[in-house]
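U., I forgot to send this yesterday:
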Amino acid sequence: MWNLVSKISGKKSPTAVHHTTVNNNEITSEPDTANTFGHTFSSNSFSEHYTDVFNAHRQKVEKQPIKLKSNNNETYNSLFSLQELTAAIEKSIDSAVGPDHIHYQMLKHLPQSALLTLLHIINKLVK
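Result:
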């Protein structure tokens, strides 16, 4: 029942916090958790842990030159259009303001000239 009521009211269900345990030591702080995961990923990615077959394959493949044939005209390299910007703003939902203190309602009511200025700034940032 809690799930149905929480979905209707928009509330999150209460869940227990699970901590990481390493060598029978519970890790609770965020920095310690991040460092533990980083150390584990680093250890697992260390080349000495690779099999001989994989290492031989990796060394062979890494000697091959990378063949990049691009004129940078892929769609992900295109500048944003005014239609894309206005569609993104229209789809946004009101939420708490961020560090810039800009409300979505402010963006939704920008005049055309301000939208063009915003679009110019965004495209300058992604170039």
